[in-house]
């Protein structure tokens, strides 16, 4: 009996140390009821790689919908991620594809049948119903559906497309601080098809929206920590263009090795060279590469990782690869069909700084089990337990 008490203290020693650290910086340790301030939200965690909810919890709920984002917040995401496109009348919307065909019920709306078009999208003729040919009201009359047939179909037809502003309000209303991670999506196409008053460009409207809701500040600045945001784009021209409009941190997305850069037409080799990383680091805090370009894959087996992560880190650039998905179909054989093994590999062996995942809940549980955070409530509970253990020990 006696021996067991000091033994449990040994077990919790790291926690006591942590609590002492917390105690010094944030007294009182037990929150006083009179000081309990509900306006103080639990902060963004910054001690482990970021959990980025790719298009919301789209593994469960149709992508880019309010429900998918709220689910991701419940499941513990650090950032909700979205793709910003525009309507014909210039509204900024959350939608991934330039056409509505694969993730909405557009086919059932006979009155829109004549809107089908073919446009050049990054050098490829693409045919379908383009968001840029529909007003916001028309887009709002559509319903979103799940992209993949092997995912839950029960939410098809239940949710509408949301605007960038509606997306922001979901993040700001969250019960804790949740960051946003919006993409300037297909800016070349959008600027070709949509015109705004005063000669404003898509990028101007994008930044104006962020500014309107108070998003500003460099990475980890005091203001940024209150409303964290990363701006992402595959188009370096857009990231450079907005660099003197906002100091929010930016992430340069990098496509597959065969895909030329969507605005500058540079090759993968060019945009991942040391010379280019030197140039782009003046504008961005990190890169967002497709994960198979960092660790090449052959016959569904991982090959030797290349040096891009190491070189990006040497340039003081974060690395946030995409996209992590639970299903066997997406898991390379090395992971034994276990998405946790994939997270373990990328976080502990490759050493990335953030992960875009379709299953935020899985990544959150993995990180809580392997690298837990201690919230104020947990700390209080733990301290209470320790205090009662110590008092028992004193009596004997
Ligand atoms: C796209 O279509 C146009 C008109 O039909 C044609 O002239 C052009 O060559 C096509 N481009 C590609 C890349 O197929
Ligand atoms: C941003 O910087 C560029 C050159 O770096 C300059 O041409 C442009 O006028 C600047 N824009 C604003 C809004 O200051
Ligand atoms: C892009 O670059 C490739 C060579 O890398 C070239 O063949 C192609 O014509 C270029 N496209 C444009 C639109 O400049
Ligand atoms: C993945 O598995 C293959 C086949 O067993 C092996 O050759 C390769 O080294 C493994 N890759 C990694 C990164 O573990």
From TrEMBL:
Protein name, UniProt field: glycerophosphodiester phosphodiesterase
Q: Which UniProt keywords apply?
A: Glycerol metabolism, Glycoprotein, Hydrolase, Signal
One example of the protein's molecular function in GO is: glycerophosphodiester phosphodiesterase activity
A cellular component term, taken from the record's GO annotations: vacuole
SUPFAM superfamilies documented for this protein = PLC-like phosphodiesterases
User: Which residues does UniProt call coiled coil?
Assistant: none
What this protein catalyses is: a sn-glycero-3-phosphodiester + H2O = an alcohol + sn-glycerol 3-phosphate + H(+)
Ranges for domain GP-PDE: 49-367
Catalytic activity, EC: 3.1.4.46
Q: What Pfam families does UniProt report for this protein, alphabetically?
A: GDPD
Record carries keyword Hydrolase: yes
GO biological process annotations for this chain's record?
Answer: glycerol metabolic process; lipid metabolic process
Keyword Transport among UniProt keywords: no
Entry's InterPro entries? GP_PDE_dom, PLC-like_Pdiesterase_TIM-brl
Q: Which family does it belong to?
A: Belongs to the glycerophosphoryl diester phosphodiesterase family.
Tell me where the signal peptide lies.
Answer: 1-26
